[in-house]
Structure formats: C-alpha cells, structure tokens
C-alpha cells in the first residue's frame, strides 16, 4: 500500500489521525504501521458501538444432556473407547492461552500465576498434572498445542523451558500464535499503543483453529493422524484434559463435537447455556434469554435450559476444516485499553475506554450439526480463575483444589 492508498483507506473509514501519526515516522515505522492497517477488517471496526448489528437469536429449544448418572452407568465402556482413541494417537489437546487475563491483573501469561500456598504451584503446572493423569493411564502422550499471542508468546515458551515442561515431553508440545485485532475508543477511532503501532490485542479465543492452520501447526495434527481436538481454557485448574470418558462418550454418540457442561446453580446463573437454536447446537448467554425461557421447566420439574458450558470442548478435525473459513459473529467488548495520547505518553486507563473485537470458541458449536452435551460435577471439574478474590478467583480455586485433595 503506497502513501496515497493508505491515506485514502484511512480517510474513508474516518481514521485520519492514524495517517497524521504515520507521516511523522521513519521508513521502518511507516512500513510497520502500514502493514497493520492493511490487515484491518473494517467491517469489524464498523461494529463498534452498534450493538444492533449483532445477530438476532433464532428459535431456541432445550438440548438434553448426557447426565452424570447416565455417564456413571456406562463409564467403563466410554473410558475404554476413549483410551483406545488416545492410544491410536487420534486425540490432541489445545490449550487456549492467548488471553490477557486483565481481570486477574497479572502482566504476564495467566498460566505463570502462582496459586500455591505453602509451595509454588503454577496454573500451567496444574494443567499439565491433570493431563499427566490421563497419559499415565493411557500409557502414551497426548500432543498438546498451546495457543499464545504476540503479547505473551515468548514469555510462555521461556517459562515452559525454565520449568522443563513440568515433566511433559517437549516433543509433544507445540506453541502457535493467534491473530491480533485492533482496538478503538468509544467513538470508533483506532487506538495506538506506540508511535508506530496500533493498539493490537488477541482476537478472542474463537480463531484458534484458523490460527493453527495459518501458522502451520495443523500440519502436525494431520501428520500425527489426530481426529479429535480437545480445547480448553488456561484458567480452569480442575479440568480434565483429553478425558477418556468424555472422548469415548462423544465418539460413541456419533456426534461431531462435545461440550462439558455443569448443572446451573440456579436459573439466573450467568453462564452460557448449551441448547438448540434453529435445530442446531448453540450456546446462548443468560442475557440473550427471556425470563420465560430461563424459568421454563420439563415435565420432571428440571429446568429446560439447565446446563452451562465451561470452555472444554471436543471437535472432530475434519468438521473443523469444513467450517474454518465460515463467518463467525464478532463480539464487541468494552475493555480497559492502554494507548498513547496526543503527546505520546502511555495511558493505562482505570476504567473501560474503548472496544476490542473478539471471536469466541462457543460460536463454533453453532456451525456444526450436532454436539454431545456431557455433564460433569462442578466441584470436581470447574475451578476457573478469573479474578484475584471473590467469585471465580484464586481463593475459590484454591479451596476447590484442596477439596479435591491437591496440595498447595
Ligand atoms: P477469558 O474470556 O476469560 O479472557 O478467556 P482472558 O483474556 O483470559 O481474561 P480477561 O477477560 O482479560 O480477564 C477464556 C480463555 O480463552 C483464552 C484465555 O487465555 C482463556 O484460556 N483466550 C481469550 C485466548 O486464548 N485468546 C483470546 O484472545 C482471549
């Protein structure tokens, strides 16, 4: 893009201030900024402040889950199917660790956070231990792909190196970086984080498969013959990874995806609920549901929309390839976004000052034909660390880990 083209494109989208900044740069700075502008998806930027552009929900219906009691009854069968798939190298795991953990307020990768009390216990370490429980049982390792972003990639890799991958074989771990997206202020103006750089942040956790493809990591998945990928968040320190029972039940069900869910604590719990939307599986947020839907009950008295997702999904790789280039909804989220002001000073706002644009992994479910809703016991498998204190915090996760016999 030459100077003129750049000026025109920025003008067309009301971003002249970026061109002003551009003119003050040396050649290297100009090239860097122009390359960032070239990658901008303007249709996404145009959504800032226009909630009305968000997609309307279709017709919602309940989706029944494979409940804990059903799973217990067939556990041995499911586990055997899952272990066989793992032994046959058909299962890989993907750790979504590209987020910035702003609520936790730690500068580095969230997985480096130390949740130990009498000794060091890092979040990454806990996750690897959970995976080792499975690989010890299966007698073989599960390839682990770790998604990072430009903001935390080097630090994440250095940490794994320093800690010797917490005992996991290095050959089975691959890192890849996710895409970045620009941020804007509340008037839709692009923010800058340096004189020669837009304010860029990871584009949400929904682009992980696309990023695996563009970074070439997908080749490794294919070469190893992996048919299923288990996606999980960095912050749930209790979760089972490549859980053979979950893998086995999903394979046995003949469905192309599976989602671990927990029974809602009460009808109004603020979780995304797995249900059907226009006949296809879908995850609908609590604020997108009417009171009537939230409170509707089945003949047996149970809530019709009773199961919330915990960001632990299983996807069939061939189906992921089919949907890789599908349009996914863009979520516009208000965030505290560091930026440089007109004088060139870095400002770290205390309250939200603009929008980031994110794709979410939960939207992938709706692109697929079906999904097994697989219930797990909340207190055994769900201890998310989002905040320092209070709900979903380091404190609540520590209590749950102790309850499950983990020494901290
Ligand atoms: P969250 O939605 O909790 O976001 O991520 P976050 O960035 O970790 O934390 P806050 O909102 O800034 O406090 C859920 C999971 O998705 C991953 C996170 O690393 C976490 O495992 N994620 C999120 C990504 O991998 N990339 C992203 O761009 C966003």
Portion of residues in beta strands equals 15-25%
Total tally of structural domains: 1
Helix content: 25-40%
Radius of gyration: 22 Å
The termini sit apart by 54 Å
Low-pLDDT residue intervals, each spanning 5 or more residues: none
- Within CATH, the superfamily carries the name Spore Coat Polysaccharide Biosynthesis Protein SpsA, Chain A
Average of the residue pLDDT scores = 95
Number of helices: 16
Q: What is the CATH third-level topology name?
A: Spore Coat Polysaccharide Biosynthesis Protein SpsA, Chain A
Small molecules bound in the structure, each named once: uridine 5'-triphosphate
Question: What does the secondary structure layout of this molecule look like, with pairings?
Answer:
Blueprint: H1 3-12, H2 16-23, H3 27-38, H4 42-45, E1 60-61, H5 68-73, H6 75-87, E2 91-96, H7 123-138, E3 144-148, H8 153-162, E4 173-177, E5 180-182, E6 184-185, E7 192-194, E8 197-198, E9 200-202, H9 208-214, H10 217-223, E10 228-233, H11 244-253, E11 257-263, E12 273-277, E13 280-284, H12 291-295, E14 307-316, H13 317-323, E15 331-335, E16 339-340, E17 346-347, E18 354-358, H14 362-365, E19 372-375, H15 378-381, H16 394-403
Parallel strand pairs: 2-3, 2-10, 3-4, 11-19
Antiparallel strand pairs: 1-12, 5-9, 6-18, 7-8, 10-14, 11-14, 12-13, 15-18, 16-17
Helix pairs in contact: 1-2, 6-11
Uridine 5'-triphosphate (UTP) is lined by residues 96-103, 110, 147, 178, 202-205, 233-235, 386.
